[in-house]
Design a protein that fits this description.
This protein is 35% helix and 25% strand. It is of the alpha/beta class and 175 residues long. The protein has a single domain, classed as Rossmann fold. Strands 2-1-3-4-6-5 form a six-stranded mixed β-sheet. Strand 1, helix 1 and strand 2 form a beta-alpha-beta unit. The radius of gyration is 17 Å and the shape is globular. It starts with a strand and ends with a strand.
Length: 175
C-alpha cells in the first residue's frame, strides 16, 4: 500500500475524492493522513507527500523560515525514493501583485514565493521537475472567465510570458 500525506485544512479524503478513487479502483491502495506541515511526526513514512497552495499561508506575515521548515519536514517524512508533489502560488507579475492587494482578502498577508525560493526549499531533494503556468487565468472574475482565460494561457500565452510572471509552480521533487 502506498501511503500518501496530504496537507489540507479539511479532513480528507473528501467524498468526491473517495468516489474518484473507487472509480479508478485505487481506493484500497491509498491511505491519507492529515498532518501539521510544521511538525510532521513521521520520519521516512510516506511514498508521496502532496500539497496545493499551502506555503503562502504557512509563511503568512512574511515568515519565509516557516515555509522552508515545512518543506524540510515534508522531505524528512518521505521514504527514500519518495516524491513530493506540489502546486503553489507564486509572486507572479506586478499586475497580479497589485490585484491581490486590492481584491484578494488575504493578499496582503499571504507570503507568495518566487521560483528561486521554491528551488531553494527543494534543494535537499535529488531531483526536481517543475513547470510554471498561468498569467491570464487568474484575471477572470468568475469560474467561467478563469477557465476561458486559462485555456488561452495553455494555448500559448504561457510560452510568451516569463516564468517569473506566472502565478503557479507545479512539480515533483524526488528524495
Amino acid at each position: 500500500m502506498r501511503r500518501a500525506c496530504t496537507l489540507l485544512r479539511q479532513r480528507c479524503p473528501s467524498e468526491v475524492a473517495t468516489e474518484k478513487h473507487r472509480g479508478y479502483g485505487v481506493a484500497r491502495q491509498i491511505e491519507y493522513v492529515d498532518l501539521d506541515a510544521l511538525n510532521i511526526s513521521c520520519t521516512e513514512a510516506f511514498d508521496v507527500v502532496l500539497f496545493k497552495s499551502v506555503l503562502g499561508g504557512i509563511g503568512r506575515g512574511n515568515q519565509k523560515d516557516r515555509q522552508r521548515k515545512a518543506v524540510a519536514e515534508m522531505y524528512r517524512s518521505l521514504k527514500p525514493g519518495g516524491e513530493l508533489w506540489f502546486a503553489e502560488n507564486l509572486v507572479a507579475s506586478p499586475l497580479h501583485r497589485l490585484l491581490r492587494r486590492r481584491w484578494v482578502q488575504w493578499g496582503m498577508q499571504w507570503r507568495y514565493i518566487t521560483v528561486r525560493e521554491m528551488l531553494e526549499f527543494l534543494s535537499p531533494f535529488s531531483m526536481v521537475n517543475y513547470t510554471t503556468v498561468g498569467f491570464l487565468g487568474a484575471l477572470g472574475r468568475n469560474a467561467r472567465q478563469r477557465t476561458l482565460l486559462g485555456r488561452l494561457d495553455r494555448l500559448g500565452f504561457d510560452r510568451l510570458i516569463s516564468e517569473a510572471w506566472h502565478y503557479i509552480i507545479i512539480g515533483v521533487a524526488h528524495k
